[in-house]
Amino acid sequence: MPTPGPLIEMRGITKSFGAVKANEAVDLSVAPGEILGLLGENGAGKTTLMNVLFGAYAPDAGEILIQGQKVRITSSADALAAGIGMVHQHFHLAPRLTVLENLLIGIPGKSGRLDRAGGLARLAEISRQHGLTLDPDLPVSALSVGEQQRLEIVKALFRGAKLLILDEPTAVLAPREVDGLFSALRSMAAQGLGIIFISHKLNEVRALTHRCTVLRLGRVAGRVDDPANTTSAEMAQLMCGHEIVPPARGPSTPGAAVLTLDGISTSKHSGTVLRDVSLAVRAGEILGIAGVSGNGQRALAEVISGVRAPDAGQMTIAGQKVSRFSPREVQALGLGRIPEDRMTTGLVTNLPLADSMVLPRIGTAAFSAKGLLKPDAIRAFAEEQIKAYDIRCPGPMTRAGALSGGNLQKALLARELAFDPKVLIVSQPTRGLDIGAARFIHEKFLDMRAKGCGIIVIGEDLEELLVLCDRIAVMYEGRIVGTLDSADATIARLGLLMTGAEGHS
Amino acid sequence: MFRLEVRTSTPAWFNLALPLLAIVATLVLCSGLIALAGAGVLESYGVMFTASLGDSYAITETLVRAAPMIFTGLAVAVAFRAKFWNIGAEGQLLAGAVASCFVGAIPMPGPLAMLLMAIAGAAAGAAVALVPATLRVKFKVDDVVSSLLLNSVIYYALMALIEGPWKDSFSGYPISPPIEDSANFPVLIEGTRLHLGVVVALIAAPLIWFLIVRTTLGFRIRVTGENPEAARYGGINVERVLISTALLSGALAGLAGVGEVGGVHFQVMSDISPGYGYSGIVVAMLARLNPFGVVPAAIFLAAVMTGAEAMSRATGVPAFLSDVIQGTALLAMLVALLFTAYRVRRVGAAR
């Protein structure tokens, strides 16, 4: 439980980027032993605020106090010295070094040599205290994402952090791993550590935190003193400034199958193999693919997107057999695709947004003729979609990388939906998006469903799948181990299938 | 204390200001060397300027030197856009020179000879560039290393040719036989060396700009360079784009060699290129990979080269300063590029 006297206090923090006030007079405090939730939509200023605290940005105004003492943090080294540790969304680890070596980076050794024995002892102690077990001799490249995150947390504790900042730590974790993370965080708080937990997932925030600070448009929009007894709807309202109603999925009248996979198998080139996967998505239905990350979802998405050819099995799109498995072929047959990783497989961040929006169809008559681009048509298309999807950006020639995640997702959605796909394959459609943006994306999927598009949603967020999908198939070790009507599906039942506990059905 | 902060956007005027800033920084940095050599800094730069751009004849000489660097600069700019790291423009230039010299020595009507020389030179340059590109696409061999090392292979092959079968049996010099007189590129202004190839180089720049900005191939080159994964998922055949880029890049570098043979030397010798292929990298970087920018960047380097010789004669500062200026300009530009991604912010001294 929180004890009096804040561990850390930020007072009147203001930070502008050009004309944009990312933070304006923000106050925030964390007591020893307290887990503070930091909430806000994308662009609300959470990341900026934490970067100020961690020394990456110098604030324009305001001060930071640690245990009542005014401090000046101008670099991450200052922050670490002041006892502030941060686990970023993207990890900062050296992949070729071992766990222990990563822990010892920047730690002065004895007479020029790494203090391996001391490091091992300290790692063992931290592991034992909080249940954060790690093999010290494994290279980081051999660790799962969850283990890498664990290493980041241990690294912060190793350096004597009194305050730990976690930026959306659960976005990369499977449900089971989330439980482990939470119990470790509770154990740390019980020992007097202060924790700042940034997340979009309100149920997690309610389950874990003692208190919440909500940011909106760079200012503090409100505070929640008793998150466990506050509803998600109330918090969402604070974040968005208005009420959020979940979309209603009406009854569907599915038509003919628009995407079928029959006995698709892949060999082990990279990642998990697919083993005899058969499924069908009908027009006007949303099929969910649930499963713990790494059970073949990526391979499935790659096969359907035409990036990887299966070794056995057949696939049809809108009744046509797919023969060559190239992205161009499946797209020509009517497949639209919203990728899991917007930045790497979806968009070109360094080029204008318009370029990304026409990328998959640049060779079609809409955007080029005889090898020459139609710049006016490209621009007009991008402008039209920006308007239709309310994509917030200065214009179609803005660098795509300058847009927020939600706006990029809208842009990707716009570029696929503009061509009325018969089938849409979507991975983690709302990962990292705030409630408002996620709601918008969901509505669009339901619109497409009503228009007779077949949608396949690959996701780890079971609540999202249950709201969105008509049927949910579960993948485990490269197989579909069961398919449930979402009316009969519960989180418990899906969870059981996801661990491979229930047989075929 | 100063620190770097990530920029959210880059102002448009940076594209012009950064190269100018880099050039000014280069001249300031190199003035120390001139002073060390015991000459007046302003005087030396004055001589350089007069000798390279001071009168119309000097300007034509500078343009003649700029032409091969426009071609190699374009070659590098195109390749780097696709992130095909072609450091091999030097070798491709030499290959182009050899091929065009071979064709130019065959008696035939002048215009036809010139056309065939250009085609042969471009094809030879493209063939050389195809090697590192194929190695990368098929076997994931690092293209920086393979294209760079290939330069030596081509250079020594050229040496073997002019020391062997092409050796002038009469004089014993290691030079190739000259091309036919009819194949010499026409001089455009009487009394100068300004030849047809210079005009072709100046026309090539806008053509390559058009190709990169307005064609689907250019679009694919840009997208492949910036994000090959997104390109692949977007239906672009990334391997094919890399090969096409390499062919184009090599052909442009090969044309640099054609111009030197057809318009300047009329034969091939071991020092036909004083490193124009490597200078192309500096040119392309100064131009920020913009084909239009390649022209002024190449003219700047050409002026430095012509000017440095005159300066050496007038003030005794070694002409090697030209190489130092080139190298410094590249480094200054690379540092200047940092400011497109970051801004410098003053922060109070840490306590």
Order of strands across the main sheet of chain B: 1-2
CATH architecture of the largest domain in chain A: 3-Layer(aba) Sandwich
The whole-angstrom Rg of chain A is 24 Å
Describe the global form of chain A.
globular
Q: Which range best describes the helical content of chain A: under 10%, 10-25%, 25-40%, 40-55%, 55-70% or over 70%?
A: 25-40%
Return the domain count of chain B: 1
Poorly predicted runs of 5 or more residues of chain B: none
How would you portray this structure in words?
The complex is a heterodimer of chains A (505) and B (351). With 505 residues, chain A is of the alpha/beta class. Chain A folds into two domains: 8-240, P-loop containing nucleotide triphosphate hydrolases (Rossmann fold); 257-334 and 421-498, 3-Layer(aba) Sandwich (Rossmann fold). Chain A is built from 17 helices and 22 strands. In chain A, the strands form five sheets. Chain A has a six-stranded mixed β-sheet, with helices on both faces. Chain A has a six-stranded mixed β-sheet with strand order 16-19-20-13-21-22, with helices on both faces. Chain B has a single domain (2-346), classed as Orthogonal Bundle (ABC transporter involved in vitamin B12 uptake, BtuC), CATH 1.10.3470. Chain B is 71% helix and 3% strand. Chain B has helices at residues 14-36, 41-53, 56-81, 89-104, 110-139, 143-163, 196-214, 216-226, 228-233, 238-265, 276-286, 291-315, 321-341, and strands at residues 2-6, 342-346. A two-stranded antiparallel sheet of chain B has the order 1-2. The N and C termini of chain B lie close together (11 Å). The model of chain B has no long low-confidence stretch (mean pLDDT 92). At the A-B interface, helix 10, helix 11 and strand 18 of A face helix 8 and helix 9 of B.
Entry summary:
Chain A is of the alpha/beta class and 505 residues long.
List keywords for this structure.
heterodimer; A: 505 residues; alpha/beta; Rossmann fold; 2 domains; six-stranded mixed β-sheet; 17 helices; 22 strands; 33% helix; globular; B: 351 residues; mainly alpha; ABC transporter involved in vitamin B12 uptake, BtuC; 2 strands
